[in-house]
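Take a look at the protein record below and tell me what you see:
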Amino acid sequence: MDYQHWCSLRDDELAAQDIAEVNLACAIGLPGAEKLHVPISLHTLEQWTDRVRQGISNAMRNRGRFPMYDELSDAEYRILTMFSVLYRHVGLTLNLDCHDPNFEYDGGDSSTNFIHSALQANCPLTCCTAPVIFAAIGRRLGYPIKLVKTREHIFCRWVEDNERFNIEATSKGYYPKSDEWYHTFPRPIYREGLASGVFLTDLTPRQELGLFLSF
């Protein structure tokens, strides 16, 4: 199904969809996505999710052996373990060229912005693909993970009634970052941008779709 299918859904229907499948659908037909195969990509994602699930299960069972992490909540400890599994055991890598002040964006290659590049070609993750991978796996595990937009960057946020923290998916570990940190990373947000409500707010499923369509 292409992006037009997702656009036609009601808000509640769109909220029930897999963020990974929506992201992949928006890449269909774009340069760099000629070999995109949605079922293959989703199968790889399920394999990574299984490894993360097993890693978190082991980590939670043995948490008492690592008192250096006692200050972390259970939710934070789960995210810490997700980083470890994905970057150390699955072997994902990062392309952080987009954080370079001299970086010039090339919109002619969808592999920079869409997750098929990592799932099918093992391309390094970017600040567009890493948070979507984290959100897709986290949601498969039942975690309340949102996408959040800041200037020229996307990150994740754990959001529930009694706990809220940011997840910088382009780190190779869990290093908590405040909302204020994103006022200047990776680019300063101007006062008008902060006042607009576009930045630093939890994206709805329809806003996520709009974000993918804007890539």
Remarks:
- The two ends are 18 Å apart (CA to CA).
